[in-house]
Amino acid sequence: MKPNPVMQKLGLSDDDRLVIIHTDDIGMCQASVAAFAELWEFGLISSGATMVPCSWFLEAAKLCQENPEIDMGVHLTLTSEWETYRWSPISTRDPKSGMVDEQGFFFHSTEQAQEHGEAEAVQIEIQAQIDRAIANGIKPTHIDTHMGSIASPKYIPAYLQMAIQYKLPPMIMRLTKEEWLEMDMSPELAAMAVQMVASLEEQGVPLLDRIAGLELNRVDTPAERVEYAKHVLGELGPGITHFIIHPSKHTPELCAITPDWPYRVADFEAFRSEDLSNFVTNSGLHVIGYRTLLELMHVN
Fold first, then answer.
1. Where are the alpha helices (DSSP H) in 30-167?
2. DSSP label at 3?
3. pLDDT tens by residue, 54-93
4. How many Cβ atoms sit within 10 Å of the Cβ of residue 24?
5. What are phi and psi of 49, to 5 degrees?
6. Share above pLDDT 70 across residues of the chain, in percent, rounded to a whole number
7. How far is CA 47 from the centre of its chain?
8. What pLDDT is stored for residue 97 in this prediction?
9. Are strands 239-245 and 72-76 parallel, antiparallel or unpaired?
10. pLDDT for 1 beyond 80
11. Helix 30-42 / helix 261-270 crossing angle, nearest 10 deg
């Protein structure tokens, strides 16, 4: 793949390393909003995305209203993964939409969401999520996808339509067909992705070079999490990386929702660490937010 054209637009070399330190799942629970607020003030993270169908979305929206400089996207949500804490579509409850399970919630898994969802219903739903975010005072900087559920031949066209319609950078990587196939993508979707990337770049839409981050099943103490983050960040290549973390504060609600709570709490503690902050400052990485890409998109 040729160098990312965004680099030249930003006055950087093709060998420079840009990273968006991105916090997922904001509004999934109260602990996620509180953690994001503290981390944003600390200054190491550079972006986040909120889950509009979730119970604490309005708290995330209130935070953005009070702090308009916050870089917040819409974490388009088609799944509801936890056992006893669930959420549903905001546009419909109709089982014919293919978006709800027998309990009336989004399906637990990405595979189920992609198998059952009707393309038209999903398009209506993701547009409703963006519209609700805007109606509640959020000025989105981008759109991305919870659990990768939008990455389906049925849903990608609507995702791209929303990106163009709302002039929002989408979380999409600019990879070759071979690289997509190495990620276990089907040949059909890999071919679609290559065409999609070429079309978007022709329209001046800024795209990513890769997605990286901290897994939610490795090293759950803050000190180990810092070293893990240093390792992953230090290995990033040239271009633009969307770097995912899932920070939350340690609360009874979080512990009741998910067994992976120690990793989320460790992300919170790690990314308010002066040690990690100093590492990033001295690493040669350029930390940007999606707002930087949003501004480029509006120039075109």
1. 30-42, 57-66, 110-116, 119-135, 156-166
2. P
3. 999 999 999 999 999 999 999 999 999 999 999 999 999 9
4. 24
5. -145, 135
6. 99
7. 9
8. 98
9. unpaired
10. no
11. 20
Q: pLDDT-derived band of residue 183, with 50, 70 and 90 as boundaries?
A: confident
Question: Any idea what the Cα angle at residue 264 is, between residues 258 and 267, rounded to 5°?
Answer: 175
Amino acid at position 267, single letter: D
**pLDDT of 190 above 70:** yes
Task: Kindly state the tokens that stand for 3.
Answer: 């160098």
> What is the rounded distance in angstroms from the CA atom of residue 225 to the CA atom of residue 151?
29
pLDDT for 300 beyond 70: no
CATH of 5-299, picked from 1.10.10.60, 2.60.40.10, 2.60.120.260, 3.20.20.370, is 3.20.20.370
Q: Average pLDDT in the 135-160 region?
A: 95
pTM of the predicted structure, to 2 decimals: 0.96
Helices 187-202 and 156-166 meet at what angle, rounded to 10? 10
Q: In the chain, what are the domain boundaries?
A: 5-299
Spacing of C-alpha 107 from chain mean position: 19
Contact 221, 25 (CB under 8 A): no
Helical segments of 155-270, H only: 156-166, 177-182, 187-202, 222-234, 252-257, 261-270
8 A C-beta contact, residue 236 and residue 17: yes
Neighbours of 176 (CB within 10 A): 13
DSSP 277: H
Q: Which of 151, 188, 153, 202 is nearest to 173 (CA)?
A: 151
pLDDT of residue 225: 97
The number of residues making up the chain comes to 300
Q: Between these two residues, 137 and 181, which has the higher pLDDT value?
A: 137
Two tokens at 188? 């059909």
Radius of gyration for the alpha carbons in the chain, expressed in angstroms and rounded = 18
